[in-house]
Amino acid sequence: MKRIFSPLLVFILIGCTSKDIAGPFDCTSTSITVDVVAINNASACNTNDGSISVSAIGGKGPYQFSVNGGAFSDNTLFQNLGAGLYSIEAKDANGCSGFLNPSAQISIPNSTLNATATTVQDSNCINDNGSILISATGGTPPYTYKLGNGTFTEIPSFSNLASGSYTIMIRDSDGCSFSLNRQVARGDTGISWSNEIQDIIVTNCAVSGCHNGTQSPNLSNISGVQANKETVKSRTGNGTMPPAGRTDLTAEQIKKIACWVDDGAKNN
């Protein structure tokens, strides 16, 4: 009897194999650098006629570019820009990204508006307490201030900030603006092993049959927790520790563990 194979069956038999399916590209093995080719400043306050031209190297071309978190495109020239700081991101054919560092600044040539800022580090684990204080000079007072994508305010300070990078825009009464990038550092939170973390770990994680010495790692003492601090932080953070069947940690307990680890997992 003559056998007849349909094209669909032949495709199934000889088509895609596991070796044909590529896994995700490891972006840690590549580096993309974004450079400014040219900047044309805006001609006056309240005008949007500035431009930034960029290029990228590294990774695998072609590249796409985004300004201030906007949509990616093939364009390397960003036009119709007003005064301010602009963050440029490049993405290559493998989906890996690189950023322009520092951000590009479009200025107003004839504006005397200037500003400085001082920061206070965030040293509170549960309630962020970092802050930024701005001092503006020049231009035409009074000034208003904006943090990130927020709204303008007459108050020259921002409080209750987590550690991280922030962009501040200062605007005078003529509509001229000036931008700053500032980093709020992370301070030591003072979370204590003996007063806070030990009870959380021993009560919830180093329990009978689970990490109390009968199962690796042993989390019944500080040396075992210190040796596995990043694992403890990761697993309590993603909810896989404590084990199933036990009460979940509260958000505050999880945050305290992370702070203690980030403080250096001290025996304090």
What is the topological layout?
Elements: H1 7-14, E1 33-40, E2 50-57, E3 64-67, E4 77-81, E5 84-86, E6 88-91, E7 97-99, E8 104-106, E9 114-120, E10 130-137, E11 144-147, E12 157-161, E13 164-171, E14 177-184, H2 193-204, H3 222-227, H4 229-238, H5 251-262
Antiparallel strand pairs: 1-2, 2-4, 3-6, 5-8, 6-7, 9-10, 10-12, 11-13, 13-14
Helix pairs in contact: 2-5, 4-5
What does this structure look like?
- By secondary structure, the protein is α+β, with helices and mostly antiparallel strands.
- It has five helices and 14 strands.
- The chain has a three-stranded antiparallel sheet, with no helix packed on it.
- 25% of the residues are buried.
- The largest beta-sheet arranges its strands as 1-2-4
Helix and strand succession?
Answer: HEEEEEEEEEEEEEEHHHH
Number of domains: 3
CATH class of the largest domain: Mainly Beta
Low-pLDDT segments, ≥5 res: 8-22
What structural keywords apply?
single chain, 268 residues, alpha+beta, Immunoglobulin-like, 3 domains, three-stranded antiparallel beta sheet, 14 strands, 18% helix, flat
Short summary:
The chain is an alpha+beta fold. The chain has 5 helices and 14 strands. This is Cytochrome c.
